[in-house]
Write a structure and sequence with these properties.
21% strand, 289 residues, 39% helix, 10-stranded mixed β-sheet, Spore Coat Polysaccharide Biosynthesis Protein SpsA, Chain A, 10 strands
Amino acid sequence: MPAHVSIVVPTYNNADFVEETIRSILAQTYTDFELVIADHTSTDGTWDKLQQFADEPRVTLLQTPAGGGAPANWGRVTEAATGDYLKLVCGDDLLEPTCIEQQVAVLDAHPDVVLTSCRRTLVDARGEQFTSARGLAGLEGVVPGRDAARRAVISGTNIFGEPACVMMRRDALERAGGWADTEPYVIDQQTFCNVLMLGDFYAIPIALASFRLSMGQWSVNLARKQSAQVVDFHHRLAEQNAGLLSRADLVRGDTLARGMAYVRRGAYLWLGRKMHPEAQAEAAVPTDR
């Protein structure tokens, strides 16, 4: 009988952190889940680190051929999922022990909710917390999905958080077309908004996940590219969903998105000494992270 929940982990050059990530998943108080991990041809020993989990009954290890960036590996690991609910966790992020239990309880209790998200903490390469309880833009409890998506656009940022914060109904993700790859730098936010066109959102206003920062995530080049893709995503969402966003909504969201990209860039530079055990080269293309 399939597990109720599929936790899927796309990895790519996460050797420094992937063991901690997997152990945080296996330590969940909720146990009716499968854990599917797909490594995207890592070159840093990530695949070797994963072998210690090969004999765990809930774990399936896969490899994804090189190429295609994050959409290829996220798609690969999601296609292998069989659970009613799906949660994607990147290969260096962390879950609090009750994260799955609390999110499953929400989806079980609210059949019209297609996606739930929690707040999250930000941690550095050593796992040290430097901000807490970020995200959700003040939302709490059940919110109509279209209202939640609009709130994300006019906030100019991904209020739902990184994938580790989110759990979705797997059939809703499939009906929404899977992971959206038209703007790969915002693959998560555009997918979440697509899913929310199909039902309600539930905001859990406590931090149940941790997002690990690394310098490779934010360069000047990336800030420009991501802000441009966020703007494109806003307008695509408006075109595909009549009445969702006004012209004023788009102007506000686009302006904030452009500004937020550089605010985050500045914050990452300030925190640079804590980001990674070793200096990272400036990234030029989207990766699986």
